[in-house]
């Protein structure tokens, strides 16, 4: 069974599981389906804005698709969430990505 199918089966049992939703988006990126991955990340972050890891991956996806302004905005949102959660590692990753686009 492929990974996407397995994750979908797990999501059928736990549709609100942010980890599984994030993992599914990453699998779609691996397959080159950035549009579907973007939809999944945006829906995840709308419903669970505290899932800080998705901000970085969504930002990187947007960079790849030439949407630098959107990537910057997501990095900034993610930095704010990481700061509120006192997640220094995530904050530093997001800040590094943000600085690459803004400096």
Summarize the helices and strands and which ones pair or pack:
Layout: H1 3-13, H2 18-30, H3 34-47, H4 53-64, H5 68-84, H6 88-102
Write a structural description.
This protein has 103 residues and is an all-alpha fold. The protein has one domain: Serine Threonine Protein Phosphatase 5, Tetratricopeptide repeat (Alpha Horseshoe). 80% of the residues lie in helices and 0% in strands. The protein has 6 helices and no strands. The protein has helices at 3-13, 18-30, 34-47, 53-64, 68-84, 88-102. The longest helix has 17 residues, at 68-84. It is globular, with a radius of gyration of 14 Å. The mean pLDDT is 97.
CATH class: Mainly Alpha
CATH architectural label: Alpha Horseshoe
Work out the helicity level: over 70%
Shape: globular
Mean pLDDT: 97
Q: Which ranges are low-confidence, i.e. pLDDT below 50, for 5 or more consecutive residues?
A: none
CA gyration radius, whole angstroms: 14 Å
Count the strands? 0
CATH superfamily: Tetratricopeptide repeat domain
In angstroms, what separates the terminal alpha carbons? 44 Å
Which structural class do the helices and strands define?
mainly alpha
Q: What's the SSE pattern?
A: HHHHHH
Strand content: under 5%
Helix count?
6
As for the number of domains, it is 1
